[in-house]
Hints:
The protein is an alpha+beta fold. Helix content is 37%, strand content 21%. It has eight helices and ten strands. Strand 8 and strand 9 (137-140) form a beta hairpin. Helix 3 (169-181) crosses helix 8, helix 4 (187-203) packs antiparallel against helix 8 (277-302) and helix 5 crosses helix 7. The chain is globular, with a radius of gyration of 22 Å. Mean pLDDT is 86; it is low at 265-269.
Amino acid sequence: xxxxxxxxxxxxxxxxxxxxxxxxxxxxxNEITSPGSRxxxxxxxxxPVWRYEEGVQGKTVIEHGRKVKVPMxxxxxxxxxxxxxxxxxxxxxxxxxxxxDIFDLLLALNLCIDxxxxxxxxxxxxxxxxxxxxxxxxxxxxxxxxxxxxxxxLTMNEIPQQVQVSESIEEIYEMVxxxxxxxxxxxxxxxxxxxxxxxxxxxxxxxxxSMSNLFFVCENVxxxxxxxxxxxxxxxxxxxxxxxxxxxxRAVNRLKHPxxxxxxxxxxxxxxxxxSLEYMRKTTNKALLHMMRKRFSVLDDCN
Length: 303
């Protein structure tokens, strides 16, 4: 059994780069479940850990050979979750790697979640505010604006209290690990590998970057080696309508080319008649999983 430390982060329409405390929205989540899998999720501020006993010799702290059980407090406990795996990480080939396989696990979990949250090894923004100097001493500024009140009100309930991991974690973890770690010999499979990294970037980026990255992922993996329109392919493979996919495409084109596109204005979020970020993420999940399942047997046979 392994305990993997991770942080929960929001995928929020409020993340425009102008709003404060967006990361705190994940504190709304009080339960994460994964029915039928060997993975559990737990929040606890303190856990017991084994550490070498320390002593002081002169001015030097030295470690003795004996281990003792000591309490360890987690950082940013309101965002911190333990991912508890039972049998998933024990028999990997190659054996469990420090960064790569943990990254793969979090990426696989995120592909299994349609709610507007994601797991990360980074807690996100942890400091904010400013201090002014008053008579040689710092004084905290508690009067600073936290952002747009109407936008905060509009997005107030976008993060659910319960999050469900709905796909087969074991299956998707194996696919992610294969696409990220084995030798790639085709453009289609390389597009999936690059798409996984772009997807990961999108989950922790601002609204505009997330919107663009998620569309590029769908376009690159669904249209790789094809002369087909991404809007049509998105509608064929996922639950998004062709009309919504086209609105998404036009908004992304407007972001890429300020002098082009049919969507006016970049300053007001309401000017973008596009699906919600949560809907885009669900759609990208389906697009990536569709192509990964389609190509996995081919890639697995080659290796």
